[in-house]
């Protein structure tokens, strides 16, 4: 399969490796830092506005290769593509249960594990060595960072960010567009649009970074 990446940064490089590991090919990296379209080493580079032309020319599908959850959502809204025009990039060294469901546009990095009956939404990022345990529900546009884990029956709302090495206890709910800081241990529910940190994770008080 031919893939067009929207984004041309470090995160895009990692996703390109994911695509290659599955036997697919990156034919373009589009980013608005490029003002003109050009080809180098067999790959197209140019602004995001070139996506429709290149999809037709290369018979390609799209992955949004941008790490920031909110920016990924904005790009999806801007492109207004159909679900079947997006690809899913699952690294060959990821472990996905046959009973798990992975949404379109989602990227699963090497060493990530998605266990039985888990559901992962669209345009999500499951980074290297992350774990989504059995029966978890993971929303659209989330990012579970390297080494982070969600235990069984946990729920992660749209746009949630679980930073490196953080853990979520069983049956806990992480509200939409919330942030769990690196190394934290979530032992209770996290409200939407909030930021928590620590062991156990507590909401950051006023005056601290949010």
Structural class: alpha/beta
Number of domains: 2
Largest β sheet strand count, sense and barrel closure: 8 strands, mixed
CATH topology of the largest domain: UDP N-Acetylglucosamine Acyltransferase, domain 1
Helical region count? Answer: 3
> Which percent band covers the strand fraction?
25-35%
Protein described:
It is a single chain. By secondary structure, this protein is of the alpha/beta class. The protein has 2 domains: 84 residues, Rossmann fold; 113 residues, Hexapeptide repeat proteins (UDP N-Acetylglucosamine Acyltransferase, domain 1), CATH 2.160.10.10. The chain contains 3 helices and 24 strands. Strands 6-9-12-15-18-21-23-24 form an 8-stranded mixed β-sheet, with helices on one face. The longest helix is centred in the first third of the chain and has 12 residues. The C terminus is likely disordered.
């Amino acid at each position: 399969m031919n893939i067009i990446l929207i984004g041309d940064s470090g995160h895009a490089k990692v996703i390109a490796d994911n695509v290659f590991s599955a036997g697919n090919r990156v034919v373009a990296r589009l980013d608005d830092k490029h003002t003109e379209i050009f080809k180098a080493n067999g790959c197209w580079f140019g602004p995001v506005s070139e996506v429709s032309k290149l999809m037709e020319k290369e018979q390609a599908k799209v992955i949004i290769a941008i790490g920031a959850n909110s920016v990924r959502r904005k790009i999806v809204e801007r492109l207004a593509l159909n679900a079947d025009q997006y690809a899913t990039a699952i690294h060959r060294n990821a472990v996905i249960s046959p009973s798990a469901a992975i949404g379109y546009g989602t990227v699963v990095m090497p060493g990530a594990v998605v266990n039985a009956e888990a559901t992962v939404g669209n345009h999500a990022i499951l980074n290297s060595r992350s774990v989504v345990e059995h029966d978890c529900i993971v929303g659209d546009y989330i990012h579970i960072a390297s080494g982070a884990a969600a235990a069984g029956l946990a729920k992660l709302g749209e746009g949630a960010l679980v930073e490196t090495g953080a853990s979520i206890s069983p049956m806990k709910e992480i509200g939409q567009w919330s942030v769990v800081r690196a190394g934290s241990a979530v032992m209770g529910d996290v409200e939407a649009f909030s930021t928590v940190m620590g062991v156990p994770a507590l909401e950051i008080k006023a005056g601290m970074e949010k």
